[in-house]
Amino acid sequence: MGAIGYSRGPYDPWHKDHLKSALREARLAQRLTQQQLADQLGVSRAFIAQIETGHRELPPTWSDTGRKLQDFIKAAKERK
């Protein structure tokens, strides 16, 4: 399994191009600001903004943060 944000095939849900829209959609669906989500995940607001704009990828060493993002996006989809 590759790192979150790095392509592993034709459709990679964790590629930065998919991650940015999935995270933004999930955040907006939960009516959270970038700062509120950052506080919830234990990261900076700038980190969230960088992911949402496609300027940030998650290296392998960020697996814990990747799991938190994955859980947040999954939970938001389940609440729809």
The whole-angstrom Rg is 12 Å
Tell me the name of the CATH class.
Mainly Alpha
Helix content: 55-70%
What do we call the CATH homologous superfamily?
lambda repressor-like DNA-binding domains
> How much of the residues is beta strand, in percent?
under 5%
- Number of discrete helical segments: 4
Order of helices and strands: HHHH
Q: What is the level-2 CATH architecture name? A: Orthogonal Bundle
Report the structural category: mainly alpha
Number of E strands? 0
For the residues shown, what is the average pLDDT? 81
Descriptive report:
The protein has one domain (16-79): 434 Repressor (Amino-terminal Domain), CATH 1.10.260.40. The longest helix has 17 residues, at 63-79. The chain is mainly alpha-helical and 80 residues long. It contains four helices and no strands. The termini are far apart. The protein has helices spanning 16-29, 34-41, 45-52, 63-79.
Topology:
Layout lengths: L15 H14 L4 H8 L3 H8 L10 H17 L1
Helix pairs in contact: 1-3, 1-4, 2-3
For this entry, give a set of tags:
single chain; mainly alpha; 434 Repressor (Amino-terminal Domain); 4 helices; 59% helix; globular
